[in-house]
Design a protein that fits this description.
By secondary structure, the protein is mainly α. It has helices at residues 2-51, 57-80, 88-124, 126-141, 144-155, 160-163, 169-192, 196-247, 255-269, 280-306, 312-335, 342-361, 365-396, 419-438. It is flat, with a radius of gyration of 42 Å. 25% of the residues are buried.
């Protein structure tokens, strides 16, 4: 007994020590969060002077939210030290909530001030960034003549449908370069006039304009490389397509293959003759699609040759057999609803659900095989439902007992009135029906 009391006392002392540590950390966190709000408010004031109100709106909103939640933390701390006695559990819950609120406040302010610090650093580097924008604009301007020459050279080789994406690249890049230089000048003047918010917007605009101009000029160089790759790939696909047309002569002679062959031949015939401007991207796409369609048609035809479709009559007989078995199972279950359990009802419900889709699968050749499989599945489920229903009926029917303790006056067995025999006859008829339908399989 002394050991039990000693262990319990140690546990209580450990819990009290943990509670004291939690209370100490809650107080420290509360002081730290309050100080963080004060320092962040000062940072916000300086940032607004440099960046303006629009770029500092997120930090201002975060500060408002933190102040609101910190009021809750102070209120909880006050409850811990008022004149009303509190239980250890109440103190523990409040201190944990104070820690949670203070940690959330610190994390939110860390996130927002780090983002703002990047903007402040960028603004303080504004003279350096403006100089870089002007240097980039000058370097990009020297690329304009080369880009115009490249576009002219490529236009003689490729069709307008391929060139439309880069035809105006040089002119658009030149406009963006002028716009970037003008925006840099505006940023410089606004900053000198202490209009920092407008200066920052102009600086961002100038930086983005030079980036877009560079991307437009790079696109012309990339186009030439990609066009050469497309031409090389097109030559390979042409050779492959011609080989596929030869191989298609040995493919099964079906309309789908004939149509795919004709489509591939048309795509080959539509290729631009050598020496004339072409669109290698569009021609490659069209030829590749036709080539893939032929491969797919041949594969499907060969699969069908190895796996012939069931005839419509065969599928229809399977559906008729499924309907017959469904009807018998449905009738037996409906006539003995009070005795039928969940298994038989589930099989019947699943069979009826599958039966709904069978007729829609029948007409199309692509789904005829699925129709046969599903019809047989319906018949199997209906047969299972019938067997399970008969089992439930047999187990639920009260058994007659006579005075002699046996089935009749002489104590011998007595045949029932027809429950089991009826089910046997039904099942036998279904089996015979299935065998007859199997003639068509």
């Amino acid at each position: 007994m002394a050991g039990i009391w000693g262990r319990r006392k140690r546990e209580q002392e450990e819990l009290a020590a943990q509670d004291a540590d939690l209370a100490r950390r809650a107080e420290q966190a509360l002081v730290g969060a309050d100080e963080r709000i004060r320092t962040t408010s000062d940072e916000l004031s300086f940032a607004e002077a440099e960046l303006g109100e629009s770029l500092t709106a997120d930090l201002r909103t975060a500060l408002t939210a933190v102040r609101t939640h910190l009021r809750e933390a102070f209120q909880l701390h006050q409850l811990n030290h008022d004149e009303i006695p509190d239980t250890a559990e109440e103190l523990r819950t409040r201190n944990a909530r104070i820690l949670q609120l203070c940690d959330w406040a610190q994390d939110l302010l860390d996130e927002k001030t780090s983002v703002l610090a990047e903007s402040v650093a960028k603004v303080r580097r504004a003279p350096e960034i403006i100089a870089q924008v002007r240097a980039d604009a000058a370097a990009l301007s020297t690329r304009i003549p080369q880009t115009n020459e490249a576009v002219a050279r490529l236009s003689a080789r490729y069709a307008d449908s391929a060139m439309h994406q880069i035809t105006a690249s040089a002119a658009e890049a030149e406009q963006l370069i002028r716009f970037a230089t003008h925006s840099a000048d505006i940023s410089e003047r606004r900053r000198a006039a202490k209009q920092n918010e407008e200066a920052n917007v102009a600086l961002e605009t100038a930086t983005e304009a030079t980036r877009r101009a560079s991307a437009l000029l790079d696109a012309v160089e990339d186009f030439e490389i990609e066009a050469l790759r497309a031409e090389s790939t097109l030559a390979e696909v042409v050779a492959d397509s011609r080989g596929d047309l030869i191989a298609a002569r040995n493919a099964p002679s079906v309309p789908a293959v004939a149509e795919a062959v004709a489509a591939l031949q048309a795509a080959l015939a539509a290729l631009t003759p050598a020496g004339q401007p072409n669109d290698p991207f569009a021609e490659l796409s069209q030829l590749r699609d036709a080539n893939s369609a032929l491969d797919e048609a041949i594969a499907k035809a060969r699969h069908r040759a190895e796996n012939p479709l069931p005839s419509l009559a065969q599928v229809q007989h399977a559906i008729d057999d499924a309907d017959r078995q469904l009807g018998v199972a449905r009738g037996l279950i409906a006539g003995h609803r009070g005795w039928i359990g969940a298994d038989a009802r589930t099989r019947l419900a699943e069979a009826e659900r599958l039966r709904v889709d069978v007729s829609d699968l029948l007409p199309a050749e692509d789904t005829r095989e699925a129709a046969l499989v599903q019809a047989r599945r319906v018949a199997h489920l209906a047969s299972e439902a019938l067997q399970l229903a008969q089992r439930d009926i047999d187990s639920s029917r009260p058994r007659d007992q006579d005075w002699g303790g046996g089935g009749g006056w002489g104590g011998g067995p007595r045949r029932g009135g027809g429950g089991g025999d009826l089910a046997s006859g039904i099942l036998g008829g279904l089996v015979i029906g299935s065998l007859l339908d199997g003639i068509f399989d």
